[in-house]
Structure formats: structure tokens, C-alpha cells
Design brief:
Helix content is 53%, strand content 13%. It is built from 11 helices and 5 strands. Helix 9 packs across helix 10. About 2% of the residues have low confidence.
């Protein structure tokens, strides 16, 4: 079954490009393209797409505000920010609002398509540059950190690869394990680190 995707982008040229990119994937379909957050909030919950591609800078309601409202209306909705902004403030505001991924518009079309597929299977697609920002924003965990000590060697490996921006399939290939096994490790990591999801696990790198 094809995964459904909605787009929120105010630039008509970029919006058409995103629709065109999605049209090249036989397993994905675009079910709506909106020029503002207000339009998106009115229409997307009823359409119930699997994924939303969200710009940050929109007329009126910002993309970050739109994410927060859509998540309140449809908590299971998967939202990927697709933007030119690389600054830490916007990155963390978007993730805090509920974004499930963060991609730069400068990335290749294949990265966008892979990100849509990845987020529907529990991944958290983040451009490598953005992943580095997340890692650098926090100090590394010290050896004394109890939550860090609780992680197994393999869980450390999985967390490190997540923080480097690898998607689940890439982690599985790197470690020679299955994608389902990677998801199991991520679940255990989240439990041990007392966080809700893989993005919080990556972000929680500050020492007590």
C-alpha cells in the first residue's frame, strides 16, 4: 500500500517540485499541497496522511506552530521539517513542537524519499549537518552517567549511529543486524534513558 504524504510549503515553485519528487516514487502518493499553516490545520487532520513535509517559514502561522497544532489534533501524524534553516534554535523548537525529522532543502530528492519511508517505520530522519548540530548542542555523557552506564555495547553503537544521522536501515547494514532488531535496541535505549523517543535519546547527552 502506498504511503500518503501532504506538503506545507508557501513557495509555489518548491511546492510543485516536492509534488513532482513524490510522484517519482511508486510507493508514495501526494494527497495535498498547502501554501499556509492555516490551510494545513484545516485540511490535513481530515485527510489523515501518513507523513507531512513541513516548511518552517510560512505566511501567518509558522511551520513550527503548525507542527504543534497538527500534533495536538493528530498525535500519530509523522511530520518532517524540510527547510533551509540550520540554526540550533529553530531545530530544537521544531523538535520540541513534535517534528519527527528535520531535512535541509539542499539535500537530493532521494534523501527526501528515503526520509518519508524511514519515518513511517519508526525512524527519525535528520540531515547529517543537523544531526551534528544536535550532538554539538550537548556535552558528551560522562562515564559516571548512570543512564550511559546502563546501555550495552550494542546499544551504545546504535545510539552513536542515530546521533550521526543514520536511518534504521543504514544502522542495520552497518552493524549486520535486521531493521527490526535496530528498532528493538532503540526501544531499550529509550527505556533506559527515560525518554519518549529516539530524538530525545539523541538529544539527551548532557551530564547531570
Amino acid at each position: 500500500m502506498r504511503k500518503s504524504v501532504a506538503i506545507v510549503e508557501d513557495d509555489p515553485k518548491l511546492r510543485d517540485q516536492l509534488v513532482e519528487i513524490l510522484g517519482t516514487a511508486p510507493d508514495l502518493k501526494c494527497v495535498g499541497a498547502f501554501a499556509s499553516g492555516e490551510e494545513a490545520v484545516k485540511s490535513i487532520p481530515a485527510q489523515n496522511p501518513d507523513v507531512v513535509l513541513m516548511d518552517i517559514k510560512l505566511p501567518g502561522m509558522s511551520g513550527i506552530q503548525c507542527v504543534a497544532q497538527l500534533k495536538r489534533l493528530s498525535p500519530a501524524l509523522q511530520i518532517i521539517m524540510v527547510t533551509v534553516y540550520k540554526d540550533s534554535e529553530r531545530i530544537f523548537m521544531a523538535l520540541k513542537a513534535g517534528a519527527d525529522g528535520y531535512l535541509l532543502k539542499s539535500g537530493p530528492p532521494s534523501q527526501l524519499l528515503d526520509a518519508v519511508r524511514d519515518v513511517t517505520t519508526g525512524g527519525a530522519p535528520i540531515s547529517t549537518h543537523i544531526a551534528r548540530k544536535v550532538v554539538e548542542h550537548f556535552r558528551p555523557l560522562t562515564a559516571d552517567h548512570q543512564e550511559d552506564k546502563d546501555l550495552s555495547h550494542r546499544e551504545h553503537q546504535v545510539l552513536t549511529l542515530l546521533a550521526s544521522g543514520f536511518i534504521y536501515k543504514e544502522i542495520a547494514d552497518q552493524l549486520g543486524i535486521g531493521v527490526t532488531t535496530v528498532r528493538t535496541y532503540v526501544t531499550k535505549i529509550c527505556e533506559k534513558m527515560h525518554v519518549r523517543n529516539r530524538l530525545e535519546a539523541v538529544a539527551k547527552r548532557r551530564s547531570d
